Known about the structure:
The structure is a homotetramer.
Chain A: H1 10-13, E1 15-20, H2 28-38, E2 42-48, H3 53-62, H4 74-83, E3 90-93, H5 100-109, E4 113-116, H6 124-137, E5 141-143, H7 151-161, E6 168-176, H8 190-195, H9 198-201, H10 206-222, E7 226-234, E8 245-252, E9 257-263, E10 272-279, E11 282-287, E12 293-298, E13 303-307, H11 315-318, H12 331-351, H13 364-382, E14 388-389
Parallel strand pairs in A: 1-2, 1-3, 3-4, 4-5, 6-9
Antiparallel strand pairs in A: 6-10, 7-8, 7-14, 8-9, 10-11, 11-12, 12-13
Helix pairs in contact in A: 2-12, 5-6, 6-13, 7-10, 10-13
Amino acid sequence: MTIESTGKTGHAGAIRLGMVGGGQGAFIGGVHRIASRIDGDYQLVAGALSSDAERSKASGAELGLAPERCYADFDEMAQAEAARADGIEAVAIVTPNHMHFPVAKAFLEAGIHVICDKPLTSTLKDAEALAEVAGDAGRLFVLTHNYSGYPMIRQAREMVQSGTLGAIRLVQMEYVQDWLTEDLESSGQKQASWRTDPARSGAGGCIGDIGTHAYQLGGFVSGLKTDTVLADLTSFVPGRRVDDNVSVLLRFEGGAKGMLWASQVAPGNENGLSLRVYGDKGGLEWHQEQPNHLWYTPFGEPKRLITRGGSGATPAAERVTRVPAGHPEGYLEGFATIYREAAEAIRAARTGASVSKDVQFPGIADGLSGMRFIDACIRSSNEGAVWTKV
Amino acid sequence: MTIESTGKTGHAGAIRLGMVGGGQGAFIGGVHRIASRIDGDYQLVAGALSSDAERSKASGAELGLAPERCYADFDEMAQAEAARADGIEAVAIVTPNHMHFPVAKAFLEAGIHVICDKPLTSTLKDAEALAEVAGDAGRLFVLTHNYSGYPMIRQAREMVQSGTLGAIRLVQMEYVQDWLTEDLESSGQKQASWRTDPARSGAGGCIGDIGTHAYQLGGFVSGLKTDTVLADLTSFVPGRRVDDNVSVLLRFEGGAKGMLWASQVAPGNENGLSLRVYGDKGGLEWHQEQPNHLWYTPFGEPKRLITRGGSGATPAAERVTRVPAGHPEGYLEGFATIYREAAEAIRAARTGASVSKDVQFPGIADGLSGMRFIDACIRSSNEGAVWTKV
Amino acid sequence: MTIESTGKTGHAGAIRLGMVGGGQGAFIGGVHRIASRIDGDYQLVAGALSSDAERSKASGAELGLAPERCYADFDEMAQAEAARADGIEAVAIVTPNHMHFPVAKAFLEAGIHVICDKPLTSTLKDAEALAEVAGDAGRLFVLTHNYSGYPMIRQAREMVQSGTLGAIRLVQMEYVQDWLTEDLESSGQKQASWRTDPARSGAGGCIGDIGTHAYQLGGFVSGLKTDTVLADLTSFVPGRRVDDNVSVLLRFEGGAKGMLWASQVAPGNENGLSLRVYGDKGGLEWHQEQPNHLWYTPFGEPKRLITRGGSGATPAAERVTRVPAGHPEGYLEGFATIYREAAEAIRAARTGASVSKDVQFPGIADGLSGMRFIDACIRSSNEGAVWTKV
Amino acid sequence: MTIESTGKTGHAGAIRLGMVGGGQGAFIGGVHRIASRIDGDYQLVAGALSSDAERSKASGAELGLAPERCYADFDEMAQAEAARADGIEAVAIVTPNHMHFPVAKAFLEAGIHVICDKPLTSTLKDAEALAEVAGDAGRLFVLTHNYSGYPMIRQAREMVQSGTLGAIRLVQMEYVQDWLTEDLESSGQKQASWRTDPARSGAGGCIGDIGTHAYQLGGFVSGLKTDTVLADLTSFVPGRRVDDNVSVLLRFEGGAKGMLWASQVAPGNENGLSLRVYGDKGGLEWHQEQPNHLWYTPFGEPKRLITRGGSGATPAAERVTRVPAGHPEGYLEGFATIYREAAEAIRAARTGASVSKDVQFPGIADGLSGMRFIDACIRSSNEGAVWTKV
């Protein structure tokens, strides 16, 4: 267990961070900022927090940014920061989805590491183009599939890899919410507006916003590659322009099967992300709303409750655990772990040192995989819910 | 709340019951017997507990049956009992699935009410034939889809019917077990042997044994009619002759959607039957292993825990509740409720009286519907998991 | 696992049972009747269901009793039944507490086994007198502390006895309800009326009604003998004549400590009976509202969920388990287990055979112990909540 | 909901913070540092992280402190920092308990705000002396009873204050752990060593370390003043010099009653802090290991699950909520809320502005109250567990 990141922290050694998006009234930008602060690895020093110059400055002032480093234009920011001796080393991209591609491209090409919110882009075409840019850039690309930062998810993955569950047969994934049960987007609510607008969010609604999280988690833990999917996408709320409920069957390479249910119209569910993985020797269950608990059943024995920081925790979980068992860590700590892992890689990149293979964060390949999943699900559904190659 | 059935009980008024199957070493026969005793409505007086004459007598003796009413042959039993002045009024059929049809036919044609374990038969053809027989017989046919006897399931149905959830959009069904994770049938275990033998169980394994329970429950509560299904059936255990894992997508008439997962190879699950139903005004969740709890969320308000016998219980739940809130009723009481409901109908049939419309038990139509579901799922899966009309 | 009692059942071998109390409108009588029927060991054939002759006859008729065996007077019943060749072998006493003593005395002295609801009597003096009678009678005295019939409670006791927890240090007991939060007795509600009336219930209210259950369970599982108690009894509801909330500290022989909280005025609690036992090697937790689960933690290892009928169940639990894991057994089955155990002893008494030491039921000693606990708590509280020898 | 503190953050406006204690190998220091960073209100700039000069420098370097602001002596630090124009505005004290008093005194007298870990001191005498110092100092004294920072605890308090529960009758408090089940202190484990050493921890072991947390929480939520307590303290582990298990009965002014159980020897419990509060109109339950859930039952209605950020949350909870419902906040966020509240008060103190009455943090009075509780419990127990005035 480590209370804090063990590398150089404090302001001397902190990584200089910029941010695009996340101005006043935004949500996920604040989450990224807290995540970047928790372990003391970063210092936010520049931002294009809004494309409106006044708003960008005002937002930056609240966060203590120097006025000259509050940009209105991300391109200008990339150039200006790349040119400074004390310029940012990494940028966090927290805009709506359709801006991920141009912003990430600009910073990667300016030689600046990118930490980008998910999904990767709003279209598969953009994703493929970004993958090419990222491949050439020689800079880090970190995608904040934050749920893979939870210690018990790290442990679940490690248990699968070490063969504790035997050969994996089944992966059951869910991400269930209720906040779009009614036509919230017509009320002008900011989150609902852009997330249900195909121009800003991409063709996928629920499938892109939360389905990809569940899909990423299933793949991260099981280590399985998806072969084909069959998806039935529905827009239950009249007038909604994107799907708000998604049922997917999956067939993995090697014969394992899976189901994925994502919904934003199931009253009584807040962020019901859950994962159940079964092999021929045992099973695992995990629920995001109680993230410190991992249920493990060796076949033929009683179920065990493995707790973060507790006696059954494995090294992969311990490595990213901050406080003792019974003192819950939550969403922000899981998110911060992605930032902490990225910090280890960024510091290594300063000197060309190699990064421990224990360091884990989702990257461009995960982003591309997620976009291919969204694309295949939409194609499958459009053709009547038929089996479709990912 | 009623502690006991309110009709005539005790031995004078008790319904004279026979049983086919359920001899020494059997499982479900004992469950039916307890269920028949709990409310004092029945008295077991005859049986063809085994097709082996010695075993039938020995089994009957243990249960206090008169030797002359311990039959080896169900046909003989039907004739003999029909001819007695004090002959049985109803028979419980607790044999393997393939015997349901001939046995039920014999007793119905002898004028005796039938209480039959599920699924209805082992083939759709038998089911259709039995439906015809039952339609002509003028006798009651009760199918023990026992989970619909749980008070909170009755309440869930009532809440849907009264519009509490609004228009139903989603029905998520699960029945997950782990007892067939390994090749138990090769060990000679009696339950595993017949339930994985297509000749005795029918073409469906997991889909017929437990998938139908989940399906029946979803339909019972939601009131929805299934239009088409798409099923992916798998036999994970090498050598197994029937499916042990089932993933189904459902489309209901009127536009609602559903998913059904049934598995017998998911370590850590005992009898994980659960139901979640969501409408545009609220959601419900119920788990068979905690049957006294029903979770209800009116959209936009905190979730409520409704307990059997508690302050939020509706008349439909109260009607079949025996003991106060916080004193759990379980599987046997739920099962007994089917027997109690059947008793009300059987007593009414004695005199031709009408039965209250509150009395609810699954019958031949439910059995036929279940067989059509199994048949459609197997056809769908055999054709590569494609959409198939039920 | 046994589905049904394995001894002689059916009407030939069934034990002839009578009942005192439990007429129309009563509660616990119906529970006893169901409990007596579940395993098929008993047949109810006589009763003094009410002291009102008409009501007794009407109640008996509903239960199928012969009119001549519906008595208005328990003394007359004891004499008459003792004189019949087919007279009752055992009587169930389900009256208010103050009648337990005279009724039990009458039947014991008539040579009839007694199955009596708890607490033993309404005063310690009566209890001591009854203990003397029972000691002389040579008949069985069974006290329905029903919670000790739950399989996981049997297992908990066995685990303690076998040293799995090491030396016991702590026993934490609770029984929490809310039904008397308001002045229900003034409304004329039958249960509330007699249970808050010292003349019928005894000097203890909450302490006698439910505190004794928790106390019995703690002793049954831990095997510890109480040395001294300190009790703070409160009547929160204005005008209430007995305690409705009880806080007790306990010191056991040998140095273990305990706490017991019983309340009838804690909104949100139905029948919150729970037990936690800790030794120097491990801990156990059990909650009556989820009785099929026993949580066991070997110190330094993850917590295990042991389920009734599951892979971690011990022989003591298996012996009293009826249906497989994941099919919940509840309050009525636990209660029925006391009846089943009593049946084994009653049958053995027919022939003088010895009873297996596995057969467990609470008896006169437990009843006396409970009354001494009530008495000590009341004395302690009356003196200002001071340490008091039990 | 606010993602981040709304005041001036970033390095320009950040509060300059120092720390005493918390060097390499310590635990709670790291927690305080993370808590201070989460909302961006503080910047750590100086420390006496260890009384060993080398270790202090090395620990400071890891945290990015300037070498000249890494002190070995807290007195020297207080003087030096008070003399700097950019000196610290507040100091976090995270030493063992016996050092709280001298360190706090030194900084308060140097005009520096104090944020101090709990319990206040190691003796009641020190506590009273410190209270006097604090009263004279005109500087803020913040005690990190961190659990009162949880949003649902804020809501619980607000619900009690607004009369939702009616008149409070019962307050049941628990804080149960298992980490001292064996003689860990003899192994040299750092936390166990000082926490079981009366010279460093104070006369109370379990009562001081965790009992006070439960007591503070009970008082914070219920608003009740304790009149008398009766405590039974035990040291179960042979050789242990302080109590490791505590049973307390409480009588509050006005007639309410309470029980408090704190233990460090109950296997299977990690940080089992829980609170249940009952009034004549309703009840509340909260468990620290699932801190985002608050269970509320209006008497006579179904129980409600109120979630942090969800539809049932009150303004007091919303004020300290960072992320939406279903994304769990944990221990570190709750701790950070104390820091955030302190920051509001510290910023106000810069200008003499008044602080909103919504701002809540435990202070010197709470610390003194906790010490009086510890003292009364020890006196009570030493006299045989008798009623003792607090």
